[in-house]
Write a structure and sequence with these properties.
Elements: H1 2-20, E1 25-32, E2 37-44, E3 47-51, E4 58-63, E5 66-74, E6 81-88, E7 94-100
Length: 103
């Protein structure tokens, strides 16, 4: 009897953990020229996520659902790029495509 009670409690605890774990989706893109990227940021309210681009300029951010601002922090003399209202939906990847930096 005790074993059954503890097994049931363990299953309930695991189910609760899965039910309340925030889910995320990947937001990705590629920056050109690739060697001119300092950092890639995503901001939503007080949440901030950052990553570095690969040597090829690709990046991916795992973000929770909502509307995010994505910022490409460029090296001088290139200008930063801000993408407003990047909408992230649970479980659906978002491809921002090629982002070209300008001087």
């Amino acid at each position: 009897m005790k074993k059954t009670i503890f097994t049931g409690i363990g299953v309930l605890a695991l189910g609760s953990l899965i039910a309340f774990t925030p889910s995320s989706s990947a937001v990705s893109g590629k920056v050109t020229p690739p060697d001119q990227v300092e950092m890639v940021w995503a901001i939503k309210g007080t949440d901030t996520v950052k990553t570095k681009a690969t040597p090829e300029g690709s990046f991916a951010l795992n973000l929770n659902p909502g509307s995010w601002k994505v910022i490409i922090d460029a090296k001088n003399p290139y200008k930063d790029v801000q993408l407003e209202k990047v909408d992230v939906t649970d479980g659906k990847p978002v491809d921002l495509g090629e982002i070209k930096l300008e001087k």
